Amino acid sequence: MAEDDLARIHQELAEDGVFVHPTLRDLVKKADESALEQEVADADHTTYVVVWPLKDSDTYGGKASDLLTRLHDAYPEPGIYLSTTTRLEPTDYSSVEVDGRQWGIPGEDDGDLSEYAIEMVVDQEEHQDIPSAMGRTLELLAMDPADVSKLNDELLAKGSSARGDDPESKDDSWLPGGLVTALVAVLAVFVAWRVAISFRKKPTPLPQSAMKQIRAARARELLARARDESQALGEALDREEIEPGDNAESWQAALDHYDAVRRLLTPEEPVELDVVGALVLTQRGRDAFACAQGGKAWEPTPTCYLNPMHGPAGKGRRIEWQGRTLEVPVCDRCRAALRKKETPDILDVVHKGKPVHYFETDVEPWASTGFGSLETDLLARLPERR
């Protein structure tokens, strides 16, 4: 159970500031752990390092932010908390990643690591193992923030040069028509995607039958995951009984969310966006259940607007679009992509026979609420489902 995980992590962090999950010992040797312990001991602020085998389907939704937030909620000690993510080893397309949160740091807001450029630098340097990525993060935390930002700018410029971009350009927008940096104008993102595609060499199109098979396989996989996760939530609710000290409203919220998920998944072949919505509501049910058992009030956490499958959103991304200033919550992954002027991983579906971004559909309440990123009370909007 999550409570056992957190107790085990906390116990070891209290001893030396570093926790390495036993299953990841091949990736972080004892000598590596000792080196991290020394760096943590030398840090300016109290710092904790968690090396955990996160997976998208686990208790934490594969999110380091969820693991660290639950850890701090259970053991509210001030400090900087660092964790591995699902990117534990490099692939052909990605390197090892580190995520961080902070609480009780003088002069800083609680939550997202204030020096976000640190995570950007580590990502751009493309570290190939956990000790390297985590050690570099600790090293950057000890540097002057201005120096870290300068390093980040240099890496961004170098990346732009390698891609053939114009490093001298004063226009910081990556969208066509002079739209300012990225995010959240629905049409702006869509146009950017279309234009980016047009500059690539056109691949040989797959046969229509193959595309249908791929979409059907993805839909089956998504539905199986939603049903497995909802069943696990239902079993957890059945096993436990409300105890003195539990938060009754949070308990009821967990039950209400589970009931809503069951209704969404009742059809033999639910609409794809309903399946995604069921996954979002299941995660909210798990969160409410955890709060109930901890005697805490539960509030829904906004998901990433661009792709709710990415989980909780961090800070919003503000842009100027058609004379208006817009702000939409996005996850760290999408924010990093946008900062690097890359196309983020937006949730696309086939609607009325053509692939579109989910927010361009008329499937409610998901499209207009951004799966709860713009309007958090999804249960109140479910009667509008169509």
Describe this structure in words.
Among the domains are: 2-151, Diaminopimelate Epimerase, Chain A, domain 1 (Roll); 208-293, no CATH class. It has helices spanning 2-16, 30-42, 64-74, 116-125, 130-141, 145-163, 186-198, 208-239, 248-264, 272-293, 332-339, 366-369, 378-381; strands spanning 18-20, 47-51, 79-84, 98-103, 111-112, 316-321, 324-329, 348-351, 354-357. By secondary structure, it is α/β, with parallel strands linked by helices. The strands form three sheets. Strands 1-2-3-4-5 form a five-stranded mixed β-sheet, with helices on both faces. Strands 6-7 form a two-stranded antiparallel sheet. A two-stranded antiparallel ribbon has the order 8-9. Strand 8 and strand 9 (354-357) form a beta hairpin. The chain is built from 13 helices and nine strands. Helix 4 crosses helix 6 (145-163) and helix 8 (208-239) runs antiparallel to helix 9 (248-264). The chain starts with a helix and ends in a 5-residue tail after the last helix.
